[in-house]
Amino acid sequence: MTRLSFGRKFFLTFDYILLSILAFLCLLPLVNVLAISFSSSTAATANIVKFWPVDFNLKSYTYALSKPEFSDAYWVTIKRVLIGTPINVILTMLVAYPLSKDDRLFRWRKYYSWVFIFTMLFNGGLIPWYMTIKTLGLIDTFWALVLPGAVPVFSVILLLNFFRGIPKEIEEAALIDGCTHWRILWRIFLPLSAPAIATITLFALVGHWNSWFDGLILMNKTEHYPLQSYLQTLVISFDLKIMNVKEAELLSQINNRTLKASQIFLAALPIMLTYPFLQKYFMKGIVMGSVKG
Amino acid sequence: MKGLFRRELPFHIMVWPGLLAVLIFSYVPMAGVVIAFQKFIPAKGVFDSQWIGFDNFRFLFQQPDFTQILRNTLVIAIAKIVAGLIASIGFALLLNELGKAFFKRTIQTLVYLPHFLSWIILGGVLIDILSPSEGIVSWALGFLGINSPFFLGSSSWFPFTLVLSDVWKEFGFGAIVYLAALTSIDPTHYEAAVIDGANRWRQTWHVTLPGIAPIVVLMVTLSLGNVLNAGFDQVFILLSPSVMDTGDIIDTWVYRMGLVNAQYGLATAVGLFKSVISSILIITSFVMASKFANYRVF
Amino acid sequence: MTNIFAKNRMITFASLALSISLVFVSACSNGNNSTSGNGGALKASSSADSPSSSPASVEANPFEKYEPAIEITTVRSTSARFKFLDGESLDNNAWTRAYENELGIKVKNVWTTDEAQYQNKMNVTIASGDLPDLMFVSPAQFQQLLESDQIEDLTTAYDQYASPFLRKIMEQDANGLMKKAATVDGKMMGITGFGSIEQGTPVIWLRTDWLEQADLPEPTSFDDILNIAEAFKKNHSGAYGIGLNKDLFGGLATIEGIANAYHAYPKIWLKDDSGKLVYGSVQPEMKQTLATLQDMYKRGLIDKEFGVKDGNKIAEDIMNNKIGLIYANFWHPLWPLQEAMNMNSADGMTWKPYPVLSADDQVASPSTTIPVTGYYVIKKGYKHPEAAIKLANLQLKNAWSDEAQAELYNTDKDQTPFYLYPTISMEPPSKNLEAGIAVTEAYQAKDFSKLNEEQKGYYDNVLAYLDNNDIKSFGNALIFGPGGSEMEVLKKYVEENRMKIGEFYGAPVPTQQMKQATLDKLELETFTKIIVGESPIDEFDSFVEKWHKLGGDEITNEINEWNAAQ
Are C541 and C551 in contact (CB under 8 A)? Predict the structure, then answer.
């Protein structure tokens, strides 16, 4: 290690400070949500909670966790993530591998590519989409949450570009050794593009975790809603124009900010926690030459 | 010829499962774009709704405020794309320079958090912190002797506020791709550069940037597909009557149209209009990249 | 990074862009009440024994049980408000059991979805052609289903089976508008979902502790209101004279009541001197209203930042002692005033409702609409169309008649909202007003023997608040008790025949479908700019001109054609 120059030191200090400030600014809203979730409902409605709970209590958490809808929805989402993410990742790898080849090696490559890219650009809208899924008999089934988005085309294109960065020589050597393409994908491309695979896994995970609209439209029973669809029904702003006495009585219960805050936090927690685990794949570089086919 | 096909067969087999999925779930429903040319009424269905040719498109283009809405959409979307790219790449590069792994991981986790809060939540927070009379931003600006503008209520500041808050919310998540790309650079390249006597700036210039260039080009190309997507959720939550002239975008317009009656035909037509523009831009940049840089983006 | 979720975003966008919110239904179901007047609200009573006015063919037992039981499929919107007893659900509760045991009707919910997505899901259901036997549709969907001949004529079923109570609501309450609204070419095509006319009116809510502090008398004119606003702003640091939300109309802290002071009736359709329906927001009286608002803003009586504040932000300001004067609906003591009281009653906070006040010597008329929320319809070809009538009969009997069992069918003491679960849900349009009058009378006589179970609940609240100073009962007490909004304000509106009731309640006319959104934007944008002084008051004249040119004239013609056809 050579001694750091003054300029370098100055730059690093600046860098540390800048990034710390940025991270701090990004943390604040979450701290605010957390503080609200532990506050009394009155304090939250009056919006006097900043970064520390006012009238600390755990009521909203005990209430949220006691609601069967919440745990049901949580379970649907966990199932969806556990089944949907591997489907996304495997299909993405299978499609990206051949499409990363040279046109000389795979002459259909360019046609296939455009077939996929086209789907990123055009869609037929809500009603035809619903009708297709209905015709297949998937309405109100778990598979309606997983199959329609089975191929995340954005991830395919991303992975395809990462695959291209892998030196051709490795693949050629493996072919000469008699490896099949299946084996090359599995034993060489997969380990060599760990950061990229981690990225598309994260995208698939976050995508499944966050999507709510498909649940609301494709599920016929509220028990089948995934978590974000359920949360959507809580977070949506109240229409103050159509209100009768009974509804108004319940408004203060439903419009309860502490309850919303606790559920938002509980819903975001798992996905925030997964990141540090996937992170290690972004952290250390991979030495191309060291992997043997 | 047959030999060629046999050689390529594993490639075909790999593509087919994914191909099947997009054929069923993307291409079949795509036939539904025909309702862009209909006065679509759900009770009549696709086959019995009235055909009206390009009326839906004409209706869109003839809106008295169409040029204003289109300009707002383009300005906000392009500013978001550019600022977002710069922020994400800049952040990834700055983070990459740091040595302490724990610090890096903590920072990276924290900046990715706002992505998981919806605009419905953040909207209320923004109104508070940006309030000229009692917001924290106005307090901070006052400290510097600056009079706080009405960020959310003044037409001239509104687009700026949209872009800045969107970049703040998404840059951490957007940086993931670049961090992955940085990790994929072969460390032997750096070792070689060091042996050649390159300092950090030169290493960044000659190794790091070329190393992530393909991913940057890819992201730029794909983001062109969004020049007409200015971010419905955010704008919808923050829009108010006093900033309509600079804040109203195509998506909020379609939403308001839908409030009066379900305008599926019109919404599909707008979607198709956006798709066509996006396709033209993406295909153009694809062709340019392959012509001038001999680089195939897809 | 905007591009990562290109695909997701498309879906999100599609959803939001296409979600047809229920907001519209209420916003645009203005009304036609050609005889004008009060909608006969006070004549209503929830007794089930008023005489039948129907020239019924063969009258049958309205509660006749099916043997063997029949099944009816339907679809439902659900809500975060739902709360069930242990082991119960939407498919198994007091209502489903009553339907099955008393009527022999098994209700099957084919799908349920959150209320925010109900219209969207209903549209895809209609488009896929897979209609349930019974469904609740918006006025626009009602129109579509009529045109494509997909719904059943209920005339005979209604004539035979409608209970006297149902007939009274459909044909007598609100001047018979509920039946009229569902009748097309002499045929009754559905059962109208209906709110309450008088409850749509604006009410002035005033902090009386601040009023006393300022040593001002109770307001009797709009000038008094301006003085009070001035005093509130001066006396309380950080406070505004009057609350105003960014959408100006509908909800908490609006301008309708202020417009009414100048005899302007924005957002609704009323007859002019020639008998033609015209739009209230473009009448000259509106210009005066805006001039006043502009002046109030200039004098600092209105929050400089109101342009970004929605109802929730207004609620915060009320709780934090920044607003002591608003124009809003009758029910706001329940929210946010209740919360504000929980927080501030120890410091003396009190509120009181007042009727809208006039800026001149003519009495001010509060504006409101005919609240058609939608229609219950039966799919064409369903074998038992009369089942819909029977479901309505039973619901009215169990929930609102003299035989009602509120504990079982409305709300129990744990606030389980059973009233949300009936398959067809109706209520007498003036139920709350009657409750307010009855409860107040009972309180004054200290005799609650004549109250029904629901009213007894309000009576207990009134007693708790007025006699025992129980702040938690403030909300209901200030609506139903003496001095409450029903008694002090709505009753006066109705008895003195003061309401201006919007007379258009049909589905959006063709030009509205295409141009209403543009006109609404123009209106809101212009009004806001005038209020904050960015545009001079004369901008109103060019707005009116533009409004007519950009589609207003066509809409006016179409709405008058609609009116002629009624």
Answer: no
